[in-house]
Structure formats: C-alpha cells, structure tokens
C-alpha cells in the first residue's frame, strides 16, 4: 500500500478521533453539571443529548457541502466547528448556552460521518478499502479511550474540572484542521462532480504511482458522471430501494443496541452497582474498544462485513442478556450500594464546596440520605436498615454509608463484577461487529452519484436514534428497572441477527463500480 494513501486516510480518519472524543468526554462531566445547574431528569437528558441532535442536523445536511464544495473543504470546516464547540462549551456558565455549544460540536460530528468515510472509500483500492475506511472507526474508538483517560486525569482539578474536560478538545481540533490542508481532493469527486478530469487523473496517479497512463485513463473513465438513464428517478426511487433500506437498518440497529447511551452514561451505570471507581472502569471500556477494533479491522477484509455482523450480533445478545440478568438478580443490593456511594460523594463535595452553593448541596445530601434509608429498608438489600438524623455530622453520615456499602457489596457477591464483564463484552462485540462495519458498509452500497446522499441517510438515521435514545435514557433509568432497559436492548439485537441472516449482502472486495450489479440496482 502506498505510504501517501495511508497518510491521507489517517488524516481524514482523524475526524473520527474528534467524533469519539466529543461524544464521550461529556460522560465525565454529566453528573457534575446536573448538580451544578440543578437539572431535572428531562432537562438533564436534553443537555446531554444536545450534541446528538446537532449530529442529526449535520448528518442530514452533510451530503450537500460534501458534494458541492468537495470532500476536502468539508473536512476543513468540520475541524473548525469542533474547535468552536469545544471552547464554547468549556467557557459557558448556564445550561442553554452549553446546549448550543454542544449542538455546534454535534453538527461537526454529523458532517464528519458523511465526509470522512466517503473520502477514504473513494481514494482506496478495493483490496484495502475495508481496512482504510475502517480507520475512521478506529479513530472514533481511540478518541473515546483518550476522552475516558482525560476525564480520569482531570477529575481532580476541583469544581471547574468539567471545563478542562470539555475544553481540552480544542488542541486536537487545531491539529486536525491544519493536517487537512495537506490531503488532495477525492478523484471521484473531481471527475464525477466537478468535471475536472485532468486534476482527477493527477490524484489517481498519486494513488496508483505504478499505473500506466492507459490504466489511469481506464480508472478515470469508470468514474465519469452517470448518464440520464442511470440517474432517472433521483435518490428516492425504487431503483435505490435496496441500498436505502440497508443503510437505514444498519444505522437503526447500531443505535438500538444501546451503544451511545452506554458510552455516555458508563460511569453512572457502573455506579449503579455500587462501584467507587466508575471513571477508572470507563477507561477499561476505551481499552476494550480499542483492542477489539483492531481485531475488527484485521478481520473485515478477511472474513467480510456480513460475518462480522453475525459475530457482533451473538456477542450483543449474550452480553446484554447477562447484564439484564445481573440487574434483576441483585437489584436490592445494587440499590443499597449505589445509594451509599451517592451519599459519600455528596459528603465529599459538601466539604470542598463553594460557599455560595452550600445550601443547595445540603439539600442534595438530604435527598440522598433519604434514598439510602429507603434502600437499606428493602428486605434483600444485604445491609442493616439505617436511620440518619437531619443534624448528623458529615463524618458519621459517611461512616454509615461506608458500612452499608461494605454490607451490600458483600451480599451482591460477584454481581458487580458480572455487570462490568458484560459491559466490556458488549463493547468488544460492538467493536468487532457494528463498529467496524457500519461506516464502511454504507460508503460501499450506493452508486457514485448518490454516495454522499446515501452516506448522509445512514448517518442521519444513526444520529436520530442516538439522539433520541440518549435524551430519554436518563428518564428510562429513572422510570424502569435497569434490567428492563438492558432486556429491551437484547430484544433489538435478536431482531438484528434475523436481519443479518436474511437481508445483508457481502460487499467484501467488490469494486464500487460493480456494487450496483451485486445489489440488483438497474
């Protein structure tokens, strides 16, 4: 593989790093922001989901600049939007301004999921297309890992640690934007959309340095604009019903696995089992994601896209099903343990609080003390029922919480570890299956003229369901038992397995120009 081709793919795929970082960095700040701005479950969900609603808009409109201004210019604007969103969200002082800033960052994410995979797939030879286009997913995962690690390292910086968590993304945003200046434009866009065959052939020569002039000419001919018969009916036509349905369903099932909700709220989910190391455990999610993304990228051009979706589906079903079982089996013990952790955290926060916020934090501590008393009163909590006087000292309250945590954690036995292992297994299944496949698959199945529109459709579907699920997830966890939520995700993955079995074609190694025939597009 030519070194320059690899470098260009890495640069374009760095949009995925910013995507992954921006998506997950909020997980380290969300509990702090909920307390700081006294957000209800509904407003909390809206604030956390604001970036994802931005991705919906970005993915819906992303095909237009990608087609009209080119893949390269669009990627440059993506970097600029990431920079604006990160600095704004770090400097804001109230929730509505915060939501606007996160929305802008979300627009950048949405456009990047259209432009970056499209660019990489269009410069890649068929034999390497899966691995090169899959680098976008690898960078998403790498960004997620760095965000989890960054959150963990910055968590000790006091009340404004959340500002540092969100603002640090400005550094990779600048690096990415400058790096985009060195990549060439997509030869397919130059020839098929701009009509600049000479420049398109010049880029093809860079991609295929050993090819003769005649071979470059043949490649350029295959990228010529499609004729009237081929474009009749436009994008929303029966001719394209198969790739449209495939793009919609792969994005739909991707999000109904619960992946984005679990990534956004990973520390909270681990905290629900009584874990006091939720941020550190979240780093484990990032490491698992990274390792198994490597595995997925190594396998995607060997086993194929369909086989990886099979593997991922079985992994999803097993891990989510067992996670639901754990939450059903040890529900009382988990409630007592997590209530104890909440009380300890509230006491620690009160001891270092800004004087202006002491009254509000005392009110918050009172609510958590009441929840702890109620949780230990449950017959199977594993803890001795406790009472906490209103005037009890912080030290005595913390001592009681420590004892409850010890008793309930002991009663839960391996329950907390089972949830941890199941979440890691879920992440591994996603990384090998849907994570490795989705952006590659969508970028392969549409004809040249409609590839940007098709990528936008898949991306928009992905982000509509991601935004909707993340927005309602706090409410779901407040109204439903955690086991029920994970059981819903399990059922959706059973449906995905059926879809893979009966509808998904294999696209491994098929030249983009031959994909229409394979999918029955006439």
UniProtKB/TrEMBL annotation:
SUPFAM superfamilies: MFS general substrate transporter. It comes from Luteolibacter soli. It is a multi-pass membrane protein. Its main location: membrane. Keywords: Membrane, Transmembrane, Transmembrane helix, Transport. Residues 8-508 form the Major facilitator superfamily (MFS) profile domain. This is Sugar porter family MFS transporter. It comes from the Bacteria. The lineage of its organism: Bacteria, Pseudomonadati, Verrucomicrobiota, Verrucomicrobiia, Verrucomicrobiales. The chain crosses the membrane at residues 5-29, 41-62, 74-91, 97-120, 132-155, 161-184, 244-266, 278-300, 307-331, 417-442, 454-474, 480-500. InterPro entries: MFS_dom, MFS_sugar_transport-like, MFS_trans_sf, Myo-inositol_Transporter, Sugar/inositol_transpt, Sugar_transporter_CS. It holds the Pfam family Sugar_tr. It is found in: Membrane. Belongs to the major facilitator superfamily. Sugar transporter (TC 2.A.1.1) family.
């Amino acid at each position: 593989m030519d070194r320059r081709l690899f470098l260009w793919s890495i640069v374009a795929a760095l949009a995925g790093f910013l995507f992954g970082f921006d998506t997950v960095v909020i997980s380290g700040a969300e509990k702090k922001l909920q307390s700081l701005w006294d957000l209800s479950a509904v407003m909390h969900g809206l604030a956390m989901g604001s970036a994802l609603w931005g991705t919906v808009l970005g993915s819906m409109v992303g095909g237009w600049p990608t087609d009209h201004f080119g893949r390269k210019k669009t990627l440059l604007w993506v970097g600029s939007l990431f920079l604006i969103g990160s600095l704004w969200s770090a400097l804001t002082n109230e929730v509505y301004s915060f939501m606007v800033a996160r929305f802008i960052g979300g627009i950048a994410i949405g456009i990047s999921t259209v432009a970056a995979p499209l660019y990489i797939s269009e410069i890649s030879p068929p034999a390497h297309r899966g691995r090169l286009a899959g680098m976008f997913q690898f960078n998403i995962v790498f960004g997620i890992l760095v965000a989890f690690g960054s959150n963990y390292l910055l968590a000790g910086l006091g009340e404004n640690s959340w500002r540092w968590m969100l603002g640090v993304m400005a550094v990779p945003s600048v690096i990415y934007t400058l790096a985009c200046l060195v990549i060439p434009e997509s030869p397919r866009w130059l020839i098929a959309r701009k009509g600049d065959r000479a420049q398109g052939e010049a880029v093809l020569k860079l991609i295929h340095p050993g090819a003769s002039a005649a071979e470059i000419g043949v490649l350029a001919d295959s990228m010529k604009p499609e004729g009237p018969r081929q474009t009749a009916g436009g994008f929303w036509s029966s001719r394209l019903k198969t790739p449209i349905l495939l793009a919609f369903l792969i994005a739909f099932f991707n999000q109904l696995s619960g992946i984005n909700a679990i990534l956004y709220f990973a520390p909270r989910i681990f905290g629900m089992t009584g874990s006091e190391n939720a941020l550190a455990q979240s780093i484990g999610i990032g490491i698992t994601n990274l390792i198994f993304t490597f595995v997925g990228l190594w396998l995607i051009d060997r086993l194929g896209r369909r086989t990886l979706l099979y593997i991922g589906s079985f992994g999803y079903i097993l891990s989510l099903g067992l996670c639901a079982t754990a939450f059903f089996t040890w529900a009382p013990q988990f409630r007592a343990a997590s209530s104890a952790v909440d009380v300890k955290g509230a006491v620690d926060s009160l001891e270092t609080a800004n004087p202006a916020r002491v009254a509000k934090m005392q009110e918050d501590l009172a609510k958590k003390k009441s929840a702890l008393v109620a949780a230990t009163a449950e017959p199977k909590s594993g803890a001795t029922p406790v009472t906490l006087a209103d005037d009890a000292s912080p030290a005595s309250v913390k001592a009681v919480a420590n004892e409850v945590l010890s008793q309930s954690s002991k009663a839960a036995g391996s329950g907390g570890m089972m949830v941890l292992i199941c979440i890691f297994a879920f992440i591994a299944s996603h990384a090998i299956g849907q994570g490795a496949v989705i952006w590659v698959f969508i970028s392969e199945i549409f004809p040249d003229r409609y590839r940007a529109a098709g990528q936008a459709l898949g991306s928009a579907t992905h982000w509509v369901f991601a935004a909707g699920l993340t927005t309602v997830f706090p409410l779901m966890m407040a109204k439903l038992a955690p086991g029920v939520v994970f059981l819903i995700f399990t059922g959706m993955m059973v449906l995905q397995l059926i879809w893979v079995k009966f509808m998904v074609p294999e696209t491994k190694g098929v030249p983009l120009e031959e994909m229409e025939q394979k999918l029955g597009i006439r």
